[in-house]
Design goal:
Blueprint: H1 2-24, E1 43-48, H2 53-64, E2 68-73, H3 77-83, E3 95-98, E4 102-106, H4 110-118, E5 126-129, E6 148-153, E7 159-165
Parallel strand pairs: 1-2, 4-5
Antiparallel strand pairs: 1-3, 3-4, 5-6, 6-7
Length: about 170
Amino acid sequence: MPRLNKVIPHKLLPFALITLLLAGCSNTASTPEGQAPQDDANSITVYKSPFCLCCNDWIVHLENNAFSVASENGLDTASVKQRWGVPATMQGCHTGVWNNQYVFEGHVPARLIRQFLANPPKGSIGLAVPGMPKGSPGMYRGKDFEPYVVYAILPNGEYRFYEKVTAPEAS
């Protein structure tokens, strides 16, 4: 019998390690599925894969710029993008949702999120940085900056130019 007690913990070790790994990917407490934190003008819920490191870097960028961030780890981020009307050509690796009202897709700088929230363009539902540009928050590593474009997302899969970012954003 004593040997059996020693074998069981070894069998549980992989499960414990996976649990710790997944828990470590979430930077803050999560909110219920599909809901952003409420009653805070600086709250954003980020939907992301638990294995994405640049998503965590973008979350740190938001937090360093006075946003309160909850993250929802999941492998089906496509359904979140679809629910929020993010066109396929505008998709990035994560989706931020502000108070269940606006969507911020990909590595959108905190400065532009604030600018958007202060004066949302008529008919827009959010902003997007498609792909993973080297110069964007969460992707920039201190050299080899490449300018990139931020787009306003409109209903029905449409989008339009919002602003070109020509210099690295402050962390």
